[in-house]
Amino acid sequence: MTKDNIIFLPNPHLRQISKRVGIVTPDILKIIDDMQAATISWDQSREHEVGVALAAVQIDQLYKIIVVRNNYDNKNDHSFTAFINPQIVKLEERLLKIMKAA
Q: What is the largest CA-CA distance in the chain?
């Protein structure tokens, strides 16, 4: 998978609700690998930018999965952590005020 597989607004799929992952199957592991490859491809196409994270929906896969680069200060470090069904469990009061004001 490459940077060309990453979708952008106004693609309507980005507005759809992603599904929870019930079981981590080989297909889910493949999606995670594809997400990492697309992020690295995007990163390599930009000299002064670094790909930090990608959601599965951004490669047109409606699953609640995100990958986050482990060391975004080192562009040559291509290791990631995958989060499956992530949830925000605590919201800082300051951020909550900003969100309510928007």
A: 42
